[in-house]
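WARN no homologs supplied; continuing
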Amino acid sequence: MRAVFEMQSSRRLMKFACPQNRIWVWAIVALYMLLLSNLTLTPDPLWFMGSWGDEAEHAVDSTFADYLQHGLAYLLLAVLLVWGTSTTSRPSAATCSLFALTHAMGTEWLQGFIPQRTCDWTDAMANVLGVGVGWFAATLTIRRTLVVEPNRLEPDDNLNQL
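OK structure emitted
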């Protein structure tokens, strides 16, 4: 039963990740990058929550939950970038991961210049750890199930031999 579910999930992923849908995949990646940049570079990212947002932000600041938020946000970015690279032969997943690492470190550094924000290197390390874990996990799952050639997408026959 599990093998059938995994095969159906893999087929759904391959259907959505096919070359004619790569514009949608990269649109999702771009929208998430914009959202993440907005949340990390605005002076008050939780403004829509009013005073409760400020209280929540101060309660979570420099706790495990804060680092978990940073790590998960960049883990999702890395997964989306690897998913995007699975729809085409260029850019490579490693190039996109370097881009995600640059974004993670750069936005944290830029926060030092924004009022009401601070540059915290522990947050930057949580961002980097999230990118690394996300890239590793996505590479093991997404990239192993798909073999991408220009304008063609086929299942990897080597996986059937396992």
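The longest strand covers residues 146-149.
OK
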